[in-house]
Specification:
Elements: E1 2-7, H1 17-20, E2 27-34, H2 48-66, E3 73-76, H3 79-89, E4 94-98, H4 103-115, E5 120-123, H5 145-152, H6 195-208, H7 215-218, H8 232-237, H9 242-255, H10 260-282, H11 303-311, H12 317-329, H13 334-347, H14 352-362, H15 368-379, H16 393-400, H17 405-409, H18 434-439
Parallel strand pairs: 1-2, 1-4, 2-3, 4-5
Helix pairs in contact: 3-4, 5-10, 6-9, 9-10, 10-15, 12-13, 14-15
Flavin-adenine dinucleotide (FAD) binds near residues 231, 236, 269, 337 and 363.
Length: about 450
C-alpha cells in the first residue's frame, strides 16, 4: 500500500504517533504544505523570524529523514488542490495527517475530504491527552481552566514513543531544496528550528542547568532563555512534543527532586492543553470580537493607535520594548504578551483581534489555540469571559523592569506623543469583522 503523510504542526520523527501509523507502507510520500497567510485585521503575511524558524524546522526534519533514506516535499498552495493531485500522480492509497485545532485548518480538511477518493485519517499528535482519554465529551468541556485542570491533572499521560529506526522509501518524486531566507536569529534569541535544538534546550533547562527548579520564581522574566523554559517555538512547530516535555519533567521529579516549580511547569502545559481543546470546541467563536450577547464588546478603531502599537511607538516605554522584542526576535515572554495585549485592549481600546493577528504574524511559537485563546481571556471574551484583565502598566514596569534595563536594551524611552482626535465616524464598530476569517 502506498501512503502519503502530511506533516502539519508535528515537524518531528520522535513521538509522532501519526507518522508511525504508516511505517508498513510499500512507499511513503512525506509532504509539508506551506501555511497560507490571508490578510486579516490589517495584517498580512508572515514575519521574517517566524518564516525563518519554520524553514529551519523543515530543513532539520529533512536532514533527519535523509538519514533514513527519505525526503520531504515542500509545496505551496491549498491542501484541497495539492493533495488530490499528488495522490493521483503517485497512486497513493491512503493519507494521514495530524489533527490540529483552528477553524480554518479544520474546514480545509473538510473540503479536502470531499475531494478525496482515498481515506484520510487524522491522528492526535499535539496534546498531552487524546480526546478519548479526556474524562468528558468535548461538548461538555469546562469553560474555565480550574475545573478543566481538576478533571484532567491526574489522568495518565501516554509515554512518548521513539523515532522510527526505518521508514518506507519515497516514491520517485522530485524533491526541491528548501530555501534559505537569509534571515538569521536575533542575538537576543539565538535559537534555531528543528528537533535537535529543541531537545538540547529541553535537556539544558531541565537536567543540565536545572533552571526548572526556579521556574516558578523566574517565569515572569521578560528575556528568553533565562527565566521561562523558552520551549514554545519548538513546541508550536511540533519539533518537540508536549508529551516529551511532560516526560522530561516526570523523569526529573523521579530521579532528582520535585518542588513547586516542577509542578508549575506541568501546570502551564495544562493551560496549553486547555486552550487546545477549547479551540476544537469553540470553532469560529475563537475569532469573534465578542462571543456572548451578555458581553457585547464595542470598541473604537483608531488605525493610528494600532500602527503605533505595532511599531512599538506608544506612550508606554515597556510596551514599546516588548513590541520591539517581538518583531526583532519573534518571541516575547508570557508577561510581555499580557502587558502588550492589555495595552492594546484597555489603554488603546482597540479590537483584540488586531493584536492577535499581529502576534500571529510574528510569533515563532504561533499556535492558533494558545494565541487566540489567550487574547480572548485577556480581553474578557470567549470561553472564560470573566471581565478580562487590565494591567496597571506603571506597576508592571516597577515590578518587572524596575531599573529600566529591558526598556533601555530595546531603546524604547521616548517622550509622550500628542493625543489623536477621534470623531464620531470612527465609533462604534461591531462584530462584522468576525466574518472575515470565515469567508477567506
Ligand atoms: C496574548 C497572548 C498570546 C499568546 N500566544 C501564544 C502563542 O501563539 N503560542 C504559544 O505557544 N503560546 C502563546 N501564549 C502563551 C504563553 O505566553 C507562551 O506559551 C509562553 O510565553 C512561551 O514561553 P515559554 O515556552 O518560555 O513558556 P513557559 O512559561 O516556560 O511555559 C512552558 C510551556 O507551557 C505552555 N504555556 C505557558 N503559558 C501558557 C499560556 N498562558 N497559555 C497556553 N500555554 C501556555 C507553553 O506551551 C509553554 O511553552 C500567549 C499568551 C498571551 C498572553
Amino acid at each position: 500500500m502506498k501512503s502519503l503523510y502530511w506533516f502539519r504542526n508535528d515537524l518531528r520523527l520522535s513521538d509522532n504517533p501519526g507518522l508511525c501509523r504508516y511505517l508498513q507502507s510499500e512507499a511513503l510520500l512525506l509532504v509539508y504544505i506551506w501555511p497560507i497567510t490571508r490578510p486579516w485585521c490589517n495584517v498580512n503575511g508572515m514575519g521574517p523570524q517566524r518564516e525563518r524558524f519554520l524553514l529551519e524546522s523543515l530543513q532539520a526534519l529533512r536532514d533527519e529523514l535523509a538519514e533514513l533514506g527519505q525526503d520531504l516535499l515542500l509545496v505551496h498552495g491549498s491542501p484541497e488542490l495539492i493533495l488530490p493531485r499528488l495522490i493521483e500522480e503517485y497512486s497513493i492509497d491512503r493519507v494521514g495527517a495530524s489533527r490540529t485545532p483552528g477553524y480554518y485548518e479544520r474546514t480545509t480538511v473538510q473540503r479536502l475530504r470531499s475531494r478525496l477518493t482515498v481515506p484520510l485519517a487524522l491522528h492526535e499528535t499535539s496534546t498531552l491527552l487524546d480526546e478519548d482519554r479526556l474524562s468528558f465529551e468535548l461538548d461538555a468541556l469546562p469553560p474555565h481552566f480550574t475545573p478543566f485542570h481538576k478533571r484532567v491533572k491526574s489522568l495518565l499521560i501516554p509515554e512518548p514513543i521513539d523515532a522510527p529506526g526505518q521508514l518506507p522509501p519515497p516514491p520517485a518524486a522530485i524533491f526541491h531544496p528548501i530555501r534559505d531566507t537569509g534571515v538569521r536569529p536575533h542575538t537576543a534569541l539565538p535559537i534555531r528550528g528543528g528537533s535537535q535544538s529543541g531537545h538540547r534546550r529541553l535537556r539544558r533547562f531541565v537536567f543540565e542547568q536545572r533552571d526548572i527548579l526556579q521556574y516558578k520564581q523566574t517565569r515572569n522574566c521578560l528575556d528568553p532563555l533565562t527565566g521561562s523554559s523558552t520551549l514554545s517555538p519548538w513546541l508550536a512547530n511540533g519539533c518537540l512534543s508536549v508529551r516529551e516535555i511532560a516526560a522530561a519533567i516526570a523523569h526529573f521529579e523521579h530521579t532528582e527532586t520535585e518542588n513547586e516549580s516542577t509542578y508549575w511547569l506541568r501546570f502551564e502545559l495544562f493551560w496549553r492543553e486547555f486552550f487546545h481543546w477549547r479551540a476544537y470546541r469553540d470553532d469560529i467563536s475563537l475569532f469573534k470580537l465578542s462571543t456572548s450577547q451578555k458581553h457585547l464588546h464595542y470598541c473604537t478603531f483608531e488605525p493610528r493607535s494600532f500602527a503605533r502599537w505595532c511599531a512599538g511607538d506608544t506612550d508606554f516605554p515597556l510596551v514599546n520594548a516588548i513590541m520591539q522584542q517581538l518583531v526583532a526576535t519573534g518571541w516575547c515572554s508570557n508577561r510581555g504578551r499580557q502587558i502588550a495585549a492589555s495595552c492594546l485592549v484597555n489603554e488603546l481600546q482597540l479590537d483584540w483581534r488586531y493584536g492577535a493577528a499581529f502576534f500571529e504574524k510574528h510569533l515563532i511559537d504561533y499556535d492558533v489555540a494558545c494565541n487566540y485563546g489567550n487574547w480572548q481571556y485577556l480581553a474578557g471574551v470567549g470561553a472564560d469571559p470573566r471581565g478580562g484583565r487590565h494591567f496597571d502598566l506603571e506597576k508592571q514596569t516597577r515590578t518587572y523592569d524596575p531599573e529600566g534595563t529591558f526598556t533601555r536594551k530595546w531603546q524604547c524611552e521616548r517622550p509622550k506623543q500628542p493625543r489623536f482626535v477621534t470623531d464620531a465616524a470612527d465609533w462604534p464598530i461591531n462584530d462584522t469583522q468576525g466574518q472575515d476569517r470565515e469567508e477567506t
